[in-house]
Design a protein that fits this description.
binds NADPH dihydro-nicotinamide-adenine-dinucleotide phosphate, 7-stranded parallel β-sheet, binds 2-hydroxyethylsulfonic acid, alpha/beta
Length: 257
C-alpha cells in the first residue's frame, strides 16, 4: 500500500544520481512529482520516461537552489497552479575538491556552502510555511556520513553536511506541535556523478572511488526515502544512516586488492 499515492513530492537535484532515483521510486509509489535541477534537458528526459512508465503527473522546472529569487519564483509558479508539495526532498548538493583546508579553493567553498546549506534553507523557508498552514507535510534532507565525521580533505564539504544535520534537528524542533515531519537520510559512498563533480570531470579518479568494493546504488537511497515518506502519519523516521557493507565509517572502507 502506498500512502503517498496522488501526493506531490518536490525534489531538488532530480537530474542525476540519488534525486533521479528518488523520482523513479516515488513515481512507482504513485506520487506526483515536481522535479527541479539546473539541467532542464535531463529533467525533460526523465519526465518523458516517467510519464510513460507511471501514471504520475510530473512537472519539471529549471532551478538553481543557490538563487533565492529562483526559489521564490518556483513557489509562485506552484501556487499559481494550486500545487502544494506534500514532500520536500532537499537533495541537491555537491562536494568540490578534496584539498587540505589551508590549500582550499574559495570558489569551491562558496559552491558547496551556497548549494548544500543555503539552498536547503531557501527551499525550506519557501515551502515549510504552506505545510504548517495545512498542518501536514514531510521534509526529507539528504545529509551524509560526512555530516557525522570529518575526513582528510573533506573540511568544507564536512562542514556543509554537519550543517544539514544541525538544520534537520533544528527544523524538526521548530515544527514540534505540528504534523509536519522532518527526516534525514545520511548515505555513505553511493556511486553517482558525485565524484566526477568533486574531481572536476576527472572520470578516471572518480571511478577509482568506487572500485574494490560494492558501493551503494542511488536506488538503495531511494528505497529508504520511499520507506520514510510511506510511514504512517504518526511515525517519523528522524534519522537514517546507510552505508555500503564494506564501509564502517567516513574513512574505514575495506577494498579488495
Ligand atoms: P550527483 O552529482 O549525481 O547529483 C547531484 C544533483 O544535485 C544533480 O541533480 C544536480 O543537478 C543537483 N545540483 C547540484 N547543484 C545544484 C544547484 N546549485 N541547484 C540545483 N541543483 C543542483 O550526486 P548525488 O546524487 O550523489 O548527490 C545527491 C545528494 O546526496 C547530495 O546532497 C550529496 O551531498 C548527497 N550524498 C551523496 C553521496 C554519494 O556518495 N554520492 C553520499 C552522501 C550524500 P544539476 O547539475 O542539473 O543542477
Ligand atoms: C558523500 C560521501 O564519503 O564522499 O557525502 O563524503 S563522502
Amino acid at each position: 500500500m502506498s500512502r503517498i499515492q496522488g501526493k506531490w513530492a518536490l525534489i531538488t537535484g532530480a537530474s542525476a544520481g540519488i534525486g533521479a532515483a528518488c523520482a523513479r521510486r516515488l513515481a512507482a509509489d504513485g506520487a506526483n512529482l515536481i522535479l527541479t535541477a539546473r539541467r532542464l534537458e535531463r529533467l525533460e528526459t526523465l519526465h518523458d520516461e516517467l510519464t510513460t512508465t507511471a501514471s504520475s503527473t510530473v512537472l519539471v522546472f529549471r532551478l538553481d537552489v543557490r538563487e533565492r529569487w529562483e526559489v521564490a519564483h518556483l513557489a509562485e509558479e506552484l501556487a499559481a497552479r494550486s500545487v502544494e508539495p506534500d514532500v520536500l526532498l532537499n537533495n541537491a548538493g555537491l562536494a568540490a575538491g578534496l584539498d587540505k583546508l589551508h590549500e582550499g579553493d574559495l570558489e569551491n567553498w562558496d559552491r558547496m556552502l551556497d548549494t548544500n546549506v543555503k539552498g536547503l534553507l531557501y527551499m525550506s523557508r519557501a515551502f515549510i510555511p504552506g505545510m504548517v498552514e495545512r498542518n501536514s507535510g514531510h521534509i526529507v534532507n539528504i545529509g551524509s556520513i560526512a555530516g557525522y565525521q570529518a575526513y582528510p580533505g573533506g573540511n568544507v564539504y564536512n562542514a556543509s553536511k554537519f550543517a544539514v544535520r544541525a538544520l534537520t534537528e533544528a527544523m524538526s524542533l521548530d515544527l514540534l506541535g505540528t504534523r509536519v515531519r522532518v527526516s534525514s537520510v545520511n548515505p555513505g559512498l553511493v556511486e553517482t556523478e558525485f565524484s566526477e563533480v568533486r574531481f572536476d570531470g576527472d572520470t578516471a579518479r572518480a571511478r577509482q572511488v568506487y572500485q574494490g568494493y560494492t558501493p551503494l546504488r542511488p536506488q538503495d537511497i531511494a528505497d529508504a526515502v520511499s520507506y520514510i515518506v510511506n510511514a504512517p502519519e504518526h511515525v517519523n523516521v528522524r534519522e537514517l544512516m546507510i552505508l555500503p557493507t564494506a564501509q564502517r565509517n567516513a574513512y574505514c572502507l575495506h577494498k579488495e586488492p
